[in-house]
Write a structure and sequence with these properties.
Receptor-associated Protein, mainly alpha, 5 strands, 18 helices, extended, 3-stranded antiparallel beta sheet
Length: 445
């Protein structure tokens, strides 16, 4: 608590309030008291703050509008650091960074043209690592706000550092961790926010942080398996396309000139290949722009148009191999998340609302035909025996194993398909070149 005492000394009344509060809540009360006393002692309060319409939050406290600032500080490592920070006033920003023992160089309100590109959600890997660290710090007896401060100071990614800074800011104002996370709902998953809220009610935050760390580790491993399975085929495919383009744009035109000079009779195959070559040479800009436009339009439609996304997902879920990858992954994620929610006392109705937001698959949002029979039967058994949470964990483990196996199968399947495709296309191009060569050889004889 020494770091917080640097922020401001607590009054006797605040000390008494902390002593009367349960140990699990003392850090929040103390942080709230020190922060409010420090900010209220600052005399630089603008007249506009007094004339604003008074708003209150859900706890009935006076709420000021949040303003975005750009700051420049010298951090604890002696390096200049700049970024954006959302607070109720400039003095809040200055006091916050002073509490971190940073040297404040400049704080100014952001202009309309000041764009912050450091935003974005945490990756599963970032969440897993951060939650494990936070749990470790709390188990070591470090106060919650101080633990998040440590995470903020050691974060190398600007977006993560900014998020942790604002968590600390809200914690020092007396907000709970779940409420502070909820204020950054675009950064933190809804599942994590609700699990932290449950932990605050049960008083066992480190345990749930550990469970969520394992959950996001599992999600991260699944994604890495997918990337690993697709990396080699993707590289081979790109090289294959590059070789084909090289042959059509550079090699074929040279032989075309040779054939014309010698008056060789061109077979239909050679004419077709040369026509493709001439088309690519004369329209390569249009082709590149067209491909980029198609990818962009597809992405936008898939992201923003529900009906289009559903149609694509239905098609993919009826294709061999791909359907198993999607179904196994969705069922594994659904049951693992559901098990975690149930095992920590979250009501089924609340769980359903959370589960509907963790998937982007429109079919599973409605719970339709894509649930395998074995998963359905195991879930029914769990309901009958009153051990739904434990049964969900077993279903998740089973389908995670199936998902891993089908990814390996896909990798083994895609590689030879690409090689065969490359061999066929290259063979056609070479055959189109060789056939006229025989015609030239016959003329020479």
């Amino acid at each position: 608590m020494q770091d917080n005492n640097k922020f401001v000394m607590m009054s006797e009344a605040n000390k008494e309030q902390v002593m009367q509060t349960p140990p699990s809540q003392q850090a929040v009360v103390q942080n709230q008291a020190t922060y409010q006393q420090n900010t209220s002692s600052n005399s630089n309060i603008s007249t506009s703050d007094l004339t604003q319409t008074v708003e209150t939050d859900k706890r009935g406290r006076v709420k000021k509008p949040i303003i975005s600032y750009r700051y420049t500080v010298i951090n604890g490592m002696g390096k200049k650091e700049t970024g954006t920070f959302d607070a109720e006033g400039e003095n809040d920003v200055r006091n916050f960074f002073l509490s971190l023992d940073y040297q404040v160089l400049e704080v100014k309100e952001r202009s309309a043209l000041d764009v912050d590109i450091s935003g974005g959600k945490f990756s599963a890997s970032d969440l897993s690592f951060s939650l494990t660290q936070l749990s470790t710090y709390l188990k070591a007896g470090i106060a919650l706000a101080d633990a998040v401060k440590i995470l903020a100071k050691q974060s190398k990614k600007p977006a993560i550092r900014k998020s942790f800074y604002e968590l600390v800011y809200q914690l020092l104002k007396g907000e709970s961790l779940s409420d502070a996370m909820d204020m950054q709902e675009k950064v933190y998953p809804k599942l994590l926010i609700n699990m932290v809220k449950t932990a605050e009610m049960t008083g066992d935050l480190p345990s749930i942080l550990d469970d969520m760390s394992e959950y996001y580790t599992s999600i991260d491993q699944t994604r890495k398996q997918m990337k690993s399975a697709m990396t080699y085929p993707a590289i081979v495919f790109i090289i294959a396309i590059a070789v084909l383009v090289f042959m059509l744009v550079y090699l074929v035109p040279q032989f075309s000139s040779l054939f014309e000079a010698n008056g060789a009779e061109l077979p239909l195959l050679t004419k077709a290949v040369m026509a493709v070559s001439q088309f690519i040479q004369g329209n390569w800009i249009i082709l590149v722009v067209g491909i980029v436009a198609i990818i962009f339009v597809f992405y936008e439609l898939f992201t923003r148009v529900q009906k289009f996304r559903e149609t694509v997902q239905v098609i993919l879920m009826h294709l061999p191999v791909f359907k198993d990858i999607i179904i196994y992954n969705e069922v594994a994620n659904f049951t693992k998340t559901f098990a975690s929610l149930l095992n920590h006392g979250v009501f089924i109705t609340d769980s359903m609302e959370i589960l509907s937001k963790i998937t982007n698959n429109e079919i599973y949002k409605r719970g339709e035909w894509a649930v395998p029979v074995v998963a359905y039967e195991m879930i029914v058994t769990g309901e009958t025996t009153g051990q739904l949470g434990q049964m969900m964990e077993k279903v998740a483990t089973h389908f995670q194993s199936l998902h891993k196996n089908v990814i390996n199968q896909m990798k083994s399947l895609i590689e030879p398909i690409i090689m065969v495709f490359l061999a066929i296309v290259v063979g056609i191009i070479l055959l189109s070149i060789i056939q006229p060569m025989f015609s030239i050889y016959g003329q020479i004889k």
